[in-house]
User: Which sequence fits this backbone?
């Protein structure tokens, strides 16, 4: 059975309200200041460089799971699964925006994948190799990897595919 997980990147950026046109003393200050103004002028861009791929495995009657560690790229098999080889890859994402800006990356708690035969498998435990407070570099880029745990019911063979929304926003 060949299992593959494909990724779709999403993007969410909060809008900054426009500056007041007339009397700045008469209305509350709605202008963005400093870093917030630069961030509004530099929208975030998210590019998927590498799709998450769990490799090729065979699943027995008891089912099991495949886990890809985002930091090391190591693949771990649990349960009634057999490694059939192939390359297992962490997902790799590049974020571009305001240099030095702090960002927040949000991954869903779980994602259901579908095979061509209508069967489903679930990816849980999605995690990145990011620090607790990720920032874009001086070049305005941040590259991170992510992995997760694919849970497969017994004898559910197929080529599983799905989309994992990746949300990135300025802090």
Assistant:
């Amino acid at each position: 059975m060949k299992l593959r997980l494909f990724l779709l990147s999403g993007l969410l950026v909060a809008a900054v309200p426009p500056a007041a046109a007339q009397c700045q003393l008469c209305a509350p200050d709605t202008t963005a200041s400093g870093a917030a103004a630069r961030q509004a002028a530099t929208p975030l861009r998210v590019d998927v460089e590498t799709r998450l791929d769990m490799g090729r495995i065979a699943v027995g009657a008891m089912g099991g799971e495949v886990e890809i560690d985002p930091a090391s790229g190591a693949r771990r098999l649990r349960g009634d699964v057999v490694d059939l080889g192939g390359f297992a890859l962490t997902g790799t994402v590049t974020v571009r925006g305001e240099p030095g800006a702090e960002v927040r990356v949000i991954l869903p708690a779980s994602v259901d994948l579908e095979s061509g035969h209508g069967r489903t498998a679930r990816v849980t435990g999605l995690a990145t190799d990011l620090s607790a407070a990720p920032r874009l570099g001086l070049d305005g880029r941040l590259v991170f990897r992510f992995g997760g745990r694919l849970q497969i019911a017994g004898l559910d063979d197929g080529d599983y595919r799905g989309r994992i929304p990746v949300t990135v926003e300025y802090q």
